[in-house]
Amino acid sequence: MCSLAAGIWFAIHIRAHAYPFLQTTLFKNPLYRIGVIIGFLMFSAIMTMMFLLPLMLFQLYALSADTIGSIGSVMFPGAICAALCGKIARNIVVKKGTRYVTFTGLGLIALGFALIWISIDQWVWWIAAALVVMNMGYAFSQTSITESVSSTLRGNQIGISMGLFSLGMFIAQALGTAMAAKLLDVSFLAFPLHSFVMEKQSLVYVNLTLLMILVILCSSFMYFLFSRRASQTSNLGAESHGN
User: What are the entry keywords (predicted)?
Assistant: First the structure.
């Protein structure tokens, strides 16, 4: 309730000033709006999975944080891969463009989630391999989506707009993990959709992972619409300059 009241006050406050630090016209840019939503969905899905995995490894595989073959050992290869792929992704963006890199990244994230979904209750190192794929996709998508969103803005809008974009990603992290924690406690997600998983405790993780796959597929479709609209806007701009 306090957050809602603060949001309403802020909306009224910035409209009352001739030169607010956050221009309301920014949200009239449809490409920027879609880009923020895509980033929000993708980041919330990734952070939700990173929140769920340690819990899943502890509860289903009896791994701890302080033994050989521990939770950290399973997640470490993926973290290293994400760090290494960030620079590679920036180079590919320059050569291939943001659209190619974003679709590649989202495809790898979806594949990583699908491999985790298949691997639950199976050999734990399959999950480690799936995390490598997922983190590769995240490194690619994060770089290219940020570049895509910034390309929709004018020079004097980039600073505050990308700051707001980053704030949205932090909110996505908090909201995604909070919702995942809440969903772990409900029973309606414990229904069988996986032919090899029948334990009630495992079913919740299976179905939450499937939900994250759907979120990434939704993000991919939205990015398809985003890139097509951005291309049309770019072509119209080029034609107007030519005339």
Answer: Membrane, Transmembrane, Transmembrane helix, Transport
d(CA 5, CA 238): 44
What is the maximum span of the chain, computed from C-alpha positions, in angstroms?
69
Nearest to 46 by CA among 109, 95, 124: 109
Identify the CATH number of the domain defined by range 28-60+69-228.
Answer: 1.20.1250.20
Residues 6+ apart with CB under 8 A from 114: 213
3-state secondary structure (DSSP) of residue 16: coil
Q: Residues 216, 46: contact at Cβ < 8 Å?
A: no
Report the distance separating Cα 93 and Cα 100, nearest Å: 8
Give start and end residues of each alpha helix (H) in the chain. Answer: 2-15, 30-61, 71-96, 98-119, 124-150, 158-184, 200-242
Q: How many residues does the chain have?
A: 243
CB count, 10 Å around CB of 83?
Answer: 11
| CA distance linking residue 44 with residue 172, whole number of Å | 5
Judged by DSSP in three states, 120 sits in: coil
Nearest to 219 by CA among 34, 61, 49: 34
Q: What is the pTM of this model?
A: 0.82
Measuring CA to CA, how many Å separate 104 from each of 55, 74, 99, 125?
Answer: 29, 24, 8, 24
Domain ranges for the chain = 28-60+69-228
